[in-house]
Amino acid sequence: MTTEDVEAAFHDVEVVAEQVNQLDEDVKDTRAEIADLDDDIADQLAVYRKQRDALGASVVQQQLDSPLGPTVSLFGSQDPEEFLEGLGAVQALNSTRADAVESFAATAKELKNRRASLKDRKTELERDRKKADAKRAQIKAKYEDAKAELARLTAAEQAAFNTSDVEIGFEVDASGRAKAAIDFATAQLGKPYIYGGTGPKGYDCSGLVMKSFAAAGVSLPRVVGPQYAASRKISMSELQPGDIVFYGDMSHNGIYIGNGKVIHAPRPGKSLEVTSVSYGFNKAGRVV
Fold first, then answer.
1. Stretch (H or E) spanning 231
2. Which residue in 276, 280, 267 sits closest to 10, CA to CA?
3. ω into 200 cis (within 30 of 0)
4. 3-class SS at 53?
5. How high is the pLDDT of residue 225?
6. pLDDT value at position 142?
7. What pLDDT digit, counting tens, does each position of 70-129 carry?
8. DSSP 269
9. What pLDDT is recorded for position 208?
10. Tens-place pLDDT, residues 178-187
11. Closest CA to 279 of 266, 193, 271
12. Residue 70 falls within a domain, yes or no?
C-alpha cells in the first residue's frame, strides 16, 4: 500500500461528492421551479374561477330573460327594423359570449398545462432526492474504504499524508478582483475540508472557489464542472494569479496564486492548503 493508492481512494470519494453537489443544486432549482409553478397556478386558478363564474352568470341571466333564447322572442316582432336591430344585438351577445368561452377555454388549458408541469417537477424532485441519498451512501462507503487504506500506512506515513502546508512563502502578485479572491482564500487556509462545505467553518474544493470569487464580486456556480464552463478557457502556460485550475475529470479545482502554487481544499483529514499546480491540475479558466 502506497500513499498514491490512498490518495486515489480519497479522490474516488471526491468524484462522488461533486456528483452529490450537482444533484443538490438540481434539487434546489427544481424546488424553486415548483414554488414558481405553485404561484402561477394560484394566479391562473383565480382567473379561471372569475371567468367561469362570469360565463355561468351570463348564461343564467339569458335563461331568465328569455327561457327559449333571445332569438326566439324576435320572431314575434311585426317591425322589420326592430327585428333587424334585435337580431344584431343577439349576434353581438353571442359573439361576446363566444369570446368569453374561448378565453375561458384558454385559461383552463393553461391551468391544466401548469398542473402537469408541476406534477413533472415533483416527480423530478423525488428522483433527484433519491439519487442524492444513494450517492451519499456511496460516499460514506468509499470514505470508509479510503480510511481503511490510510490505516494500513505507517504512523509516520499517515502523519505526513495528513500534513497541510498553510504557508504561502512569497508575495502574491495580483490586483483587483483576482487579489480579492486570493485574499479570501488565503484567509481560509488551515480550516478543515468538509464534504459539501461552503464555509465559514470549512469547505470542499468547489465551495472554496465559489465563495472566494463571491467575495470578489464574481458569481460562480456551485459545482466544479459548471465553474469550468462559466470560465474563459486558457492554457496552463497562460496561468496568472486568480485563475482557476481544474482536474481534467472535473472532480477537483483550486485557485492559482502564482509561482506554480494553488490554494485548494484537498480532502477529509486535511486542512485547506497551498499545493503545487502539478498536484493534478491540467485545465484552467479565467473569470476575472
1. none
2. 267
3. yes
4. helix
5. 95
6. 84
7. 455 544 545 555 545 555 555 555 565 667 667 777 877 888 888 888 888 888 888 888
8. T
9. 98
10. 999 999 999 9
11. 266
12. yes
> Are the C-beta atoms of residues 270 and 219 closer than 8 Å to each other?
no
Low-confidence stretches of the chain (pLDDT beneath 50): 68, 70, 74-75, 77, 83
Count the neighbouring beta carbons within 10 Å of the beta carbon of residue 66: 14
Task: List the one residue out of 228, 225, 263, 229 whose CA is nearest residue 25.
Answer: 225
Judged on CB neighbours under 10 Å (0-12, 13-18, 19+), 244 is buried
Query: What was the pLDDT predicted at 92?
Result: 55
268 and 173 share a domain? yes
The C-alpha angle with vertex 132 and arms to 32 and 214, in degrees rounded to 5, equals 55
Pull the grid cell for residue 228.
469550468
Residue type, 87: L
pLDDT given at position 6: 79
Tell me the chain's radius of gyration from C-alpha atoms. Answer: 33
Amino acid at 135: K
pTM: 0.69
Assigned domain for 184 exists: yes
Q: Which residues pair with 233 in a beta bridge?
A: 285
Number of compact structural domains in the chain = 2
Rounded CA separation 271/169 (Å): 17
Sorted by sequence, the CB contacts under 8 Å of residue 249 that are 6+ apart come out as 15
The verdict on residue 160 lying in a domain is no
Give the residue among 198, 195, 168 at the shortest CA–CA distance from 183.
168
For the record, the C-alpha cell of 66 comes out as 328569455
Domain CATH code at residue 228: 3.90.1720.10
DSSP state of 203: B
The boundaries of the domain holding residue 30 are 3-151
Predicted pLDDT at 74 = 44
59 and 127 share one domain: yes
Tabulate helix, strand, coil % of the chain (nearest 5): 65, 10, 25
Q: What is the CATH number of the domain that holds 58?
A: 1.10.287
